[in-house]
Amino acid sequence: MDGLPRVKVSDTVDTEGALVISCFPSVSHVSSIVAHYLIERLELKFVGGVLHPNLPPVALVQDGKPMPPVRMYAGKPVCNMEQCDNLVVLVSEAPVPPRMCLPLAEALLEYSHQKGFQAGVLIDAFSHQQESGHEVMDTDDTDETMLGIGATDWALEQLNEMEIPLLEAGMVAGMSGVLLGEGRRRRLNMLCIMAEAAGGIPDARAAARVIERLNRMLPAIELDTEPLLAEAERIELQIKAMIAHQLGAQGDDDESGEPNAMLYG
């Protein structure tokens, strides 16, 4: 009834052939930490966001400036991946209501098709100590498991080169699950990197493990995780301090469309 969400990005931004790194809310804020690290480290610029009345009615404030809950950053770091001329980071700290996942995925994929995006990497996390909507069969005895999912043969090859074992069985919920399903249906080069995280608290160390794998995929960018690990405590405290308020009640999405998770940034 309300139509697809609108992707509003500056007309001056060149995103042709871009690699998109998508960071929607995850266990222990892993995706949020990865997004903020990439934005700061690679000096990516805020270029736009997504509008829809059913998205969380909030604004993220940074340096005194309001921004939409689902937003996009872009830049041109050195990249030695074939045909990767630009890098785009898509990030949201506000959980997307379940009923909005498919419309939002469709809007984002349609925009990526129009702009000629090259490939997509979804960042996510899971924990056996906290309910996350994901059901992951983790056969690794350590608490630092990395798992991957690929929508195409190309994506599976990338995961193999990054030495990320495939998720053999399980269920992935939320935006990652919807985007992966649509990615396979549309034969898009899309993969997901999932890190095992502590659960409940921001986990910068799990985020660092994700960045180390991204560094293998894009070695020319030289993503140094030492600053992230050195500042892990500061980053974790910063993420906690940016928690604004709780959206909706606990449990499943109700008729109001309000999500059942915390807003953080």
Fill in the keyword field for this structure:
single chain; 8-stranded mixed β-sheet; disordered C terminus; Rossmann fold; 265 residues; 7 helices; alpha/beta; two-stranded antiparallel ribbon
Kindly estimate the percentage of residues that lie in beta strands according to DSSP. Answer: 15-25%
Tally the beta strands: 12
Strand order of the largest sheet: 1-3-6-7-2-8-12-10
Distance between the termini: 30 Å
Oligomer: single chain
Give an overview of the whole structure.
The protein is an alpha/beta fold. The chain has a single domain (15-76, 90-233), classed as 3-Layer(aba) Sandwich (Rossmann fold). It is 29% helix and 23% strand. It has seven helices and twelve strands. It has helices at 30-41, 101-115, 153-161, 174-185, 204-217, 226-230, 232-241, and strands spanning 6-9, 18-23, 45-51, 60-62, 65-67, 70-75, 86-92, 119-126, 135-136, 146-150, 170-171, 190-196. The chain has an eight-stranded mixed sheet with strand order 1-3-6-7-2-8-12-10, sandwiched between helices. A two-stranded antiparallel ribbon has the order 4-5. It has a two-stranded antiparallel sheet with strand order 9-11. A hairpin with a 2-residue loop joins strand 4 (60-62) and strand 5. Helix 1 (30-41) packs across helix 5 (204-217). It is globular. The two termini are 30 Å apart.
